[in-house]
Amino acid sequence: MAELVFFSGTMDCGKSTLALQTDHNHRVQGRRGLLFTRFDRSGAATISSRLGLARPALEVGDTTDLWAEVSRRHAQEPLDYVVCDEAQFYDPEQVEQLARLVDDLGIDVFAFGITADFRTRLFPGSARLVELADRVQVPQVEALCWCGRRATHNARTVDGVMVVAGEQVVVGDVGGAGGGQPEGTLDVGDVGTVEYEVLCRRHHVRRQTKARGDGPGDGTGVVDVRRADPAERQLP
Ligand SMILES: Nc1ncnc2c1ncn2[C@@H]1O[C@H](COP(=O)(O)OP(=O)(O)O)[C@@H](O)[C@H]1O
Ligand SMILES: Cc1cn([C@H]2C[C@H](O)[C@@H](COP(=O)(O)O)O2)c(=O)[nH]c1=O
């Protein structure tokens, strides 16, 4: 029985890797599929994983009718599955089209995306996926907050400072782990340099990013849990 499955987690938890692995596993068993994405970080119509894998995909645009696009191709040569990356950026109507592909054509749909934005608000596409999916799955690999807890939320920083207001969609990457100019930095002109960082809820609420958590006297009155109580880090 075909399914609509939504694999959802924070940024940098391995969703695109899993999307490519899913495609690979189905393809090597002789199943036919299509790959879709929207606004991939690479800037191309590609599903790209930070592990270095990448495959070309079809770009979903504002007006793409996924039902029409997939059913047309399916009529020419039957399709078994569709992989949809960056699904948080899809329009709710496009998510409904994906559900119809499952129900009316028996095509499996594997959608991958972050659930919530940097303000902890649901993306409309993700909200519709949660509402319609047969299953919502959390990828096995956990992204970690700087404190060692599981990262559950996405933070946006502009010029290194965490922000909680702004445009919902700003394509970008998480900063590099080392010093110097971090990888994934996106300069968006007037706005400043935008980066993302994954945090546990506690540190998202307190607006404590890695840089602020490290810094003494950050003005929040929050104790740095790494120094105050190592047990709280919940590292093994
Ligand atoms: N150099 C590396 N060595 C091993 N694993 C890495 C490396 N760089 C990234 N990763 C893994 O890749 C994951 C990110 O995968 P990716 O599919 O790009 O994430 P997502 O699509 O969820 O943003 C990281 O959580 C980490 O586990
Ligand atoms: C939190 C958040 C993220 N984005 C963008 C940033 C990236 O381009 C993608 C997520 O990609 P990933 O493969 O899951 O790392 O989403 C955004 O536009 N707005 C946000 O609030």
UniProtKB/TrEMBL annotation:
<keyword id="KW-0067">ATP-binding</keyword>
<dbReference type="Pfam" id="PF00265">
    <property type="entry name" value="TK"/>
</dbReference>
<comment type="similarity">
    <text>Belongs to the thymidine kinase family.</text>
</comment>
<keyword id="KW-0237">DNA synthesis</keyword>
<dbReference type="InterPro" id="IPR027417">
    <property type="entry name" value="P-loop_NTPase"/>
</dbReference>
<feature type="binding site">
    <location>
        <position position="196"/>
    </location>
    <ligand>
        <name>substrate</name>
    </ligand>
</feature>
<feature type="active site" description="Proton acceptor">
    <location>
        <position position="86"/>
    </location>
</feature>
<dbReference type="GO" id="GO:0004797">
    <property type="term" value="F:thymidine kinase activity"/>
</dbReference>
<dbReference type="GO" id="GO:0005524">
    <property type="term" value="F:ATP binding"/>
</dbReference>
<keyword id="KW-0808">Transferase</keyword>
<protein>
    <recommendedName>
        <fullName>Thymidine kinase</fullName>
        <ecNumber>2.7.1.21</ecNumber>
    </recommendedName>
</protein>
<dbReference type="GO" id="GO:0046104">
    <property type="term" value="P:thymidine metabolic process"/>
</dbReference>
<dbReference type="GO" id="GO:0005829">
    <property type="term" value="C:cytosol"/>
</dbReference>
<keyword id="KW-0418">Kinase</keyword>
<feature type="compositionally biased region" description="Basic and acidic residues">
    <location>
        <begin position="224"/>
        <end position="236"/>
    </location>
</feature>
<feature type="region of interest" description="Disordered">
    <location>
        <begin position="207"/>
        <end position="236"/>
    </location>
</feature>
<keyword id="KW-0547">Nucleotide-binding</keyword>
<dbReference type="InterPro" id="IPR001267">
    <property type="entry name" value="Thymidine_kinase"/>
</dbReference>
<dbReference type="GO" id="GO:0071897">
    <property type="term" value="P:DNA biosynthetic process"/>
</dbReference>
